[in-house]
Amino acid sequence: MIPLSVLDLSPIVEGSDASHSFRHSLDLAQHAERWGYNRFWMAEHHSMPGVASAATAVILAHIAAGTTSIRIGAGGVMLPNHSPLVIAEQFGTLEALHPGRIDLGLGRAPGTDQAAAYALRRNLNSDANQFPRDVVELMNYFRLPEPSQRVRAIPGEGLNIPIWILGSSLFGAQLAAALGLPYAFASHFAPGLMDEAISVYRRDFKPSAQLDRPHVMLGYNIFAADTDEEAHFLASSMQQAFVNLRTGQPTPLPKPVPNYLESLPANGRAMLDQVLSCSAIGAPETVCGAIDSFIARTGADELMVTSQIHDHAARLRSFEIVAEVTGLNAPQWDPPA
């Protein structure tokens, strides 16, 4: 089995708040570490009522302090929202606090809608070449400084922080290949160009100091439960959230409802079938078969598993089932004091 990792948006569920989300995220990370998951990543989103991970570096510091061995990272930081120097300093700080455990995934989307993007960046004039330049600038801050270098990332310089390129189009695949960086594709919500992006990345990959061969990580939704019926019931929270988002009415993660798909018009079901096509929903044996089939079809080097479930205990159980059916090696673990 290839490595499995966790993507957590620290969901704010209906009837709760961000404080509970952060406690649940830490609890999930501690369990994921115990169960043998490789990484625990959180993503930058803004102005979204159901996502609490907007200040990504801040919440990652909380997660890293409460765990001991699992890699902690951003999946990702939306670099157009920030100066490369600030991100180098933030993640240099995380790496200095937790050496050898920090990843930095970079995306070029704003992680929000146009109004919030304007509030973040003040300027929506897009330059297709700015993101690659910003990535290279950021990477340079992690190198040892030149004698005459005036701007330095302290902390940051000289630290070995793996950089990932995130994407849902061919742009990110091409950039990751050109820079010789690992590539994470957002197939868990935008799978349309997945196969072509994987092909482009692997075909054009150029080895670098960080990576000598292509490494593809794919986002994958899993809603696992003791029965297929229960799993489909739990998945209805995420399905409702997507419909709400696509209709311009984002909400906290809704409570699950029975037979949700049957209540939708045909176009709503078709939309969910498309955006959530990279998903496994069901009992342990159903999920195991779906995971095996997805890996065999894509040749993924790693899966980034996300499980947007309203009830925290049920979400933990979903990740536990995945660890059980895939045979993840669970290390000895003691909870942080």
Write the layout of secondary structure elements.
Elements: E1 4-8, H1 18-35, E2 39-42, H2 56-65, E3 71-78, H3 84-97, E4 102-107, H4 114-121, H5 130-141, E5 163-167, H6 170-179, E6 183-185, H7 194-204, E7 216-224, H8 228-246, H9 266-275, E8 279-282, H10 284-298, E9 302-306, H11 312-326
Parallel strand pairs: 1-2, 1-9, 2-3, 3-4, 4-5, 5-6, 6-7, 7-8, 7-9
Organism: Allosphingosinicella flava
Protein name: Luciferase-like monooxygenase
Family: To bacterial alkanal monooxygenase alpha and beta chains.
Which key terms come to mind for this protein?
alpha/beta; TIM Barrel; single chain; 42% helix; 337 residues; 8-stranded parallel beta barrel; oxidoreductase activity, acting on paired donors, with incorporation or reduction of molecular oxygen; Luciferase-like_sf; globular; Luciferase-like monooxygenase
**Apparent shape:** globular
Amount of helix: 40-55%
* Largest sheet strand order: 1-2-3-4-5-6-7-9
Question: Strand count, sense and closure of the main sheet?
Answer: 8 strands, parallel, barrel
Q: What is the CA-based Rg, rounded?
A: 19 Å
State the order of secondary-structure elements, H for helix, E for strand.
EHEHEHEHHEHEHEHHEHEH
Top CATH class: Alpha Beta
Could you please say which CATH topology applies here?
Answer: TIM Barrel
The secondary-structure class comes to: alpha/beta
The number of helical elements comes to: 11
Q: What's the mean pLDDT score?
A: 93
Q: Tell me what portion of residues adopts beta-strand conformation.
A: 5-15%
Number of strands: 9
* Spatial gap, N to C terminus: 32 Å
Gross CATH architecture: Alpha-Beta Barrel
- Poorly predicted regions are 330-337
Indicate how many domains the architecture comprises.
Answer: 1
Oligomer designation:
single chain
Protein name: Luciferase-like monooxygenase
Family: To bacterial alkanal monooxygenase alpha and beta chains.
GO cellular component, one term: cytosol
InterPro entries: Bact_Lucif_Oxidored, CmoO-like, Luciferase-like_dom, Luciferase-like_sf
